[in-house]
Design brief:
Shape: globular
Strand content: under 5%
Mean pLDDT: 84
CATH class: Mainly Alpha
CATH architecture: Up-down Bundle
Largest sheet: none
Number of helices: 16
Number of strands: 0
Low-confidence stretches: 183-191
Structural class: mainly alpha
CATH topology: Growth Hormone, Chain: A
Length: 391
């Protein structure tokens, strides 16, 4: 019963929180463009978030494995509420970037530690339940983006940020109402919680795992540019309104949400490699083709790319969790989002610079090509696993 309550509360909390994120995310690129007029500054929206996100991942994972996960997750929601309050008061691009830095600290446990709990609670179907959690996350983003799209012009910006702050508080309270961690064997306080760093380093330097980590960097870069550089590309290059750009976010979140629901089942039944390689390939196709089509078709290709990202996500986080016991679930999830954050940090910043030089479309194509290449490396590194799963 406790594990079902935990699953319910975690999913409800992340849905509500991401609903709020979905409302405010389309506002931020236009807001920072209005303050600074710089595409590089827009890229820094993702980089500011990722900088703090990167810094806390490994320490957070180690501490959560030792002291339990739930308190850190709830604290993350409350920190995000502080970030929302900063957005509400922001009168410059600098304050918006400060808010994004705070949001990165707050979101780190939401992305990393909830999958760690679920992989312990549901060891034989971890990919599926992690997929449900990530689907709730992205369905929340989709719902929030749709509401923001519909309310654009009627809902003042400050109201959007107030709603976000309130939803952060509710999500934190729901998390604290989840099942007892000790009863669920999620808190290893009575176990030996020391980390064997030598074995951990040996794990991540294995060829097949290293290829997974490279794919995670690509995934982070794709995610980062989708909420920063690509909206700016359509705002400036295609002269779309912020309301129309909201459709990009809706397509992105729908693609990832559907992929989570399908990918979890596939990963549990057919192995982890298939969704990873298929996901990177689909992302490559969508990323390379979308700049050459009219907006309506571009959204379709970007939705295909986001579906690919979702497939890769669920396969990669599941394969990493397969490598460790319950004492290191927080650490391995932290490792996933450390590499994700690296891509999320560098991707928008590099593409923002490329855009300033007038080569943004070439940058999109290069990222798609890198995704296809890493997918091939991943397939070659795991060819024996693929052959076994096929049988």
């Amino acid at each position: 019963m406790d594990r079902k309550r935990s699953l319910l509360m975690l999913n409800c909390a992340i849905y509500l929180f991401m609903f709020g994120v979905g409302i405010i995310t389309p506002i931020l690129p236009g807001k920072i463009l209005a303050f600074s007029g710089s595409t590089v500054q827009v890229g820094l929206l993702a980089s500011a978030f990722a900088c703090s996100y990167l810094l806390v991942q490994i320490p957070l994972g180690v501490l959560a494995d030792k002291f339990g996960y739930k308190t850190f997750i709830a604290l993350g929601y409350f920190i995000c509420g502080v970030a929302g309050f900063i957005y509400l008061l922001a009168g410059s691009s600098t304050l918006i970037l400060v808010g994004r830095f705070m949001q990165g600290i707050g979101e780190a446990p939401l992305w990393a530690l909830a999958p760690a709990i679920l992989s312990i609670l549901y060891p034989t179907s971890k990919a599926r339940v992690i997929g449900w959690y990530n689907a709730s996350l992205h369905i929340g983003l989709t719902s929030g983006s749709i509401c923001g799209f519909v309310a654009y012009g009627y809902l003042p910006e400050q109201y959007a940020f107030i709603i976000f702050v309130l939803l952060c508080l509710v999500a934190g309270i729901l998390t604290l109402m989840g099942g007892d961690e000790k009863a669920l064997h999620c808190s290893p306080r009575e176990k030996d919680c020391s980390v064997d760093w030598r074995a951990f380093l040996q794990l991540i330097t294995q060829r097949k795992i290293f290829c997974v980590l490279l794919g995670i960097v690509i995934y982070g870069a794709g995610y980062g540019i989708y909420i920063t550089i690509i909206p700016a590309f359509f705002l400036e290059g295609q002269h779309l309104s912020p309301n129309s750009v909201g459709l990009l976010f809706i397509g992105f979140y729908i693609g990832i949400s559907i992929a989570q629901l399908i990918g979890g089942y596939v990963a549990d039944k057919m192995g982890r490699v298939l969704p990873m390689v298929t996901g990177l390939s689909l992302f490559a196709v969508g990323q390379i083709l979308f700049p050459f089509f009219a907006v309506s078709y571009a959204i379709v290709f970007l939705s295909i790319a986001s579906f690919g990202l979702g497939l890769f996500l669920i396969g990669s986080i599941a394969i990493l969790n397969d490598q460790v016991d319950s004492n290191s679930k927080g650490l391995i999830s932290g490792l996933f989002y450390l590499f994700w954050g690296g891509g999320y940090f560098l991707g928008p910043m590099i593409l923002g610079y490329i855009a300033e030089q007038g080569y943004l479309i070439q940058g999109f194509i290069t990222l798609g090509g890198m995704s296809a290449f890493v997918g091939l490396l991943l397939l070659l590194a795991n060819r024996t696993v693929v052959a076994r799963d096929a049988r």
